[in-house]
Amino acid sequence: MADIVSKKKRSEMMSGIQGKNTRPEMLVRSALHKLGLRYKLHDKTLPGNPDLVFPKYNAVIFIHGCFWHLHDCHLFKWPSTRPKFWREKIQSNKDRDKKNIQILKENNWRVMTIWECALKGKNRLLIEGVIEIISEWLPSGNAEIEIRGRDNK
Questions:
Q1: In 3D, which of 119, 145, 122, 150 has the Cα closest to residue 25?
Q2: pLDDT at residue 18, rounded to an integer
Q3: Which one of 88, 108, 130, 148 has the lowest number of neighbouring Cβ atoms within 10 Å?
């Protein structure tokens, strides 16, 4: 299927996509702050620059976009143009995520991944439910957890 916008317009659209301070991230940050939870943002000293860092709990949270991090949900669809480029790009993101999480765990960090589909789309969860999961996980000591949209694998 041909793209419905020009190459120049598509380039402008793609370059405008943020890597941090995204809408899903801001939603989670705001709700956690209202609960009195404090965190560091995008700590560049940690592998993968986690979106939220909770030193008190030795825990980090990544809030991943389903497209950019190759999630197996309804929000992910392979682009039809430049398939080789996109497969390499997106797969390298996924491989890097896996490596960064492994390094964090080896250094005794606990890791939570929140997928975009948990916060957006037809299978999203209620934000109150997501925040409850986070607030229960932080003091729990459990090593790793993933929050996905409903009906995802």
A1: 119
A2: 57
A3: 108
Q: Please classify residue 61 by burial: count the beta carbons closer than 10 Å to its beta carbon, then call 0-12 exposed, 13-18 middle and 19+ buried.
A: buried
pLDDT surpassing 90 at residue 80 = no
Model pLDDT for residues 119-130, shown as the tens digit of each residue: 999 999 999 999
Q: Is 83 domain-assigned?
A: yes
Nearest to 78 by CA among 89, 119, 153: 89
Residue 53 makes CB contacts below 8 A (sequence gap 6+) with: 39, 40, 41, 43, 46, 59, 60, 61
In CATH, what number is assigned to the domain containing residue 43?
3.40.960.10
Looking at the whole model, is its pTM more than 0.70? Answer: yes
* Strands 110-115 and 59-64, sheet pairing: parallel
**Does residue 72 lie within any of the structural domains?**
yes
The Cβ of residue 36 has, within 10 Å, a number of other Cβ atoms equal to 7
Domain extent for 129: 19-147
Give the pair of three-digit tokens for residue 135: 């607030």
